[in-house]
Write a structure and sequence with these properties.
By secondary structure, the chain is of the alpha+beta class. It has 17 helices and 21 strands. Helix 2 packs across helix 6. The radius of gyration is 33 Å and the shape is elongated.
């Protein structure tokens, strides 16, 4: 049976069935290439010169080039065995090796390091520079060229050979220079672009060596079995691929536009919940109750925005990564007093603050902490406006003290010992996910004077690790290294709320911005912190924990949905790709 050419209409029909999958368009691009190299994208024409005759002409042309001294003689090339290609060849096609249809020019390539290239191009006009190519793309510029023709580059190392959706080969043209990370092939009487398409879907299993950095040796590259269509059909296939890839570009742009609108709507609807004009002196009860019963006064704006956000959430939240915005909104609402009801029977935060001041004075008198330098309140990290009744606006210096880690001489660190010696990497240990209980190194009890006590919030203070935003509560006494800092509330009962507040903003905004980012005491102590009554703190933390658990469930559900969509996508693409092969096997 003659295969029907794959049209743009069929591509759109297939896309409609798989569009919900996150990687639908990249997979669709791969599908187009799979069809192309199997001869299922355009019709075969009986009038085309058969590939066997083209292969004969290629042999003659290579012999001419060798005789003219333009290429080197090739070693004998073994025939392609019947099972080496992953599909049946259409009528008029032939099987060959890459070395049969192209000449390897690896002996002409030459690597030049970046420093040398910079020296060579310094002060020269862009008109005098030529592109310098590597494994997957252009790496820079150079002041000379090696090649001046259209060529196929196939990555030798450092490329994603086993990632089905990423490129391994590409075409270059004009005056160029190529380094030793890409194999260089000159196609002989063939379409270079057709063979690039094939090399981008070829299965490199068994040809690539190296566990840490995969490498395709030249001997394995030239030996790759390739399908050879008639030359005229190669050109038709390439044209059809261009047409369908252009359509994929349009679908991708449209999808990106929809996702951008969705993200903006999600962000805007959640942001309205924390906007200043939704504040009220009397804030709502727990969100669900407030929306249904109207227990709060002067909160119509908040209720309206919350109702819209809750109703729109299922439609707007379609990817697991979008849950982060929801988590942040929950934290922002919590520290503004918008998540639970205020209780007139709660002891006001002013009384709690007096107890905190008394405990701070006790620790100072006992010499257990040092007095922080006087600080002026900083601009609130989250931009708080009017606080609920009974709350107090304080700074970190009012409610907690800071302690930095220490540097040790190497022989002080031990594989085991009395006190865990925590480093930044230890914040990522699975055992410490729910609180710090161990470390990779330890110190003896002689370092007891440098201990960060249990109940402290530990976080990175230096380098790129600040951007990880890892903040862990220590469940045991530890000694931290000099890249860590800890915050310890004066009153233990306030720690869960202080930790929650600390989680509500990005540590990176506090760093010094120098070549080595750093956070110091002066960056933390002045931060404004809204302090609720202690009883309300406990209600807020409990509500946040419950809502975060729901976020975990929603994220898991979206992940499961994405996995299901991916499996459906695989099935649909397999179904679309294989029917013709199944029909051929049945006929045989």
């Amino acid at each position: 049976m003659k295969d029907v050419p794959f049209s743009a209409a069929r591509l759109l029909e297939l896309y409609d069935r798989i569009s919900d999958a996150e990687d639908a368009i990249p997979r669709l691009r791969r599908f187009v290439l799979d069809l192309a190299v199997r001869g299922k994208l355009v019709e075969q024409e009986a009038s085309d010169e058969p590939a066997a005759e083209l292969l004969t002409r290629i042999v003659k042309e290579k012999a001419r080039l060798v005789k003219a001294g333009e290429i080197k003689p090739q070693k004998p090339i073994p025939n392609v065995e019947a099972d080496e290609l992953a599909f049946h060849l259409p009528k008029g096609w032939a099987a060959a090796r890459l070395a049969e249809v192209a000449v390897c020019l690896d002996y002409m390539r030459k690597p030049i390091n970046g420093t040398e290239r910079e020296k060579r191009i310094e002060g020269k006009s862009s008109d005098d520079l030529y592109p310098y190519f590597g494994a997957t793309q252009q790496q820079g510029w150079i002041d000379e060229y090696i090649f001046d023709e259209e060529l196929i580059l196939l990555g030798e190392d450092g490329i994603p050979f086993f990632d089905l959706l990423r490129s391994k080969a590409y075409v270059i043209s004009g005056k160029t220079w190529v380094n030793n990370h890409a194999h260089v092939f000159r196609g002989i009487l063939v379409s270079n672009r057709f063979f690039v398409h094939y090399l981008n879907v070829f299965d490199y299993s068994g040809r690539v060596v190296g566990a840490t950095r995969a490498k395709l040796n030249q001997a394995k590259a030239v030996d790759i079995p390739v399908p050879l269509p008639p030359l005229a059909e190669q050109h038709r296939i390439v044209a059809k691929v261009d047409e369908l890839m252009a359509l994929c570009d349009q679908l991708e742009q449209a999808r990106a536009g929809r996702e951008a609108v969705r993200d903006r709507l999600t962000t805007a609807s959640l942001a309205r919940l924390t906007a200043p004009d939704t504040d009220a002196q009397a804030l709502p009860a727990e969100v669900e109750t407030a929306l249904s019963s109207g227990n709060a006064t002067n909160t119509s704006a908040f209720q309206s925005h919350a109702r819209f956000a809750l109703q729109s959430l299922p439609t707007l939240t379609t990817r697991p990564d979008q849950i982060n915005t929801l988590r942040q909104t929950i934290l922002n609402l919590a520290v503004r007093g918008k998540l639970v009801a205020q209780d007139a029977g709660d002891e006001p935060a002013a009384y709690l603050l007096k107890r905190i001041e008394a405990e701070k004075a006790r620790l100072l008198n006992a010499g257990k902490i040092r007095e922080a330098k006087a600080v002026e309140p900083a601009k609130p990290v989250l931009g708080y406006s009017a606080l609920p009744k009974g709350w107090q606006q304080v700074t970190v210096a009012n409610v907690a003290y800071l302690r930095s880690g220490v540097a040790l001489v190497h022989d002080e660190e031990q594989d085991s010992g009395e006190i865990p010696y925590l480093k930044v990497a230890d914040l990522s240990l699975a055992e410490n996910d729910n609180g710090i209980i161990t470390s990779s190194r330890f110190v003896s009890g002689e370092r007891r004077g440098d201990v960060i006590v249990a109940g402290s919030i530990v976080f990175p203070k230096r380098g790129g690790a600040i951007a990880t935003n890892r903040k862990r509560v220590s469940k045991v006494d530890i000694v931290g290294d000099s890249n860590l800092m800890a915050m310890k509330p004066f009153v233990d009962g306030t720690m869960p709320f202080v930790k929650m507040w600390f989680n509500s903003f990005d540590l990176w905004v506090l760093n010094s911005g120098t070549s080595v980012p750093q956070i110091n005491n002066k960056d933390i102590y002045p931060l404004e912190l809204p302090l609720p009554p202690l009883a309300e703190q406990h209600r807020i933390v409990a509500k946040v924990d419950a809502l975060m658990a729901l976020c975990d469930q929603l994220e898991a559900s979206l992940t499961t949905t994405a996995t299901t969509r991916s499996k459906l996508l695989n099935a649909l693409l397999h179904e679309a790709l294989e029917p013709a092969a199944d029909e051929l096997e049945a006929a045989e």
